[in-house]
What we know:
Layout: E1 5-11, E2 17-23, E3 26-33, H1 37-51, E4 53-60, H2 66-83, E5 86-90, E6 101-104, E7 107-112, E8 115-120
Amino acid sequence: xxxxxxDLVVVALSPxxxxxxxxxxxxxxxxxxxxxLSEVLPELFREIMDRFEIKRIFFARGPGSFxxxxxxxxxxxxxxxxxxxxxxxxxxxxxxxxxxxKAVGKLYFVREGGIIVTKRIEGEVEQGFQLPEELDSxxxxxxxxxxxYVIPAx
Length: 154
């Protein structure tokens, strides 16, 4: 059984799946995995859990892909219940320098005055999500881990 404790940061709002492994609050390993979240998430976590004991997970709880948010939340909540992992929810803008996040079509999620809304944006918007080098920089909550669904009007 792995004895070394680590913390994880997980961003699955849009492909690729990003997972950072942190020791003593510092990023020591980064994984980017392409593919269907339902297939790559369990496999990646099995690899990580074979090597480490996960103490805390910080994750992007939305906005973004509705199905990805739902799947990630259920997966992480199961780990919390079965393994005693601490969960911390962060909004997705934490990981992309507050840039718009793709919703559907030409609609993007944006934060305006502390409120998340959808806006139509012409052209492509850079979607790169970044993992922080240190956990101290994250503004996440242990009390707000429920999915942050922001579904635009159709």
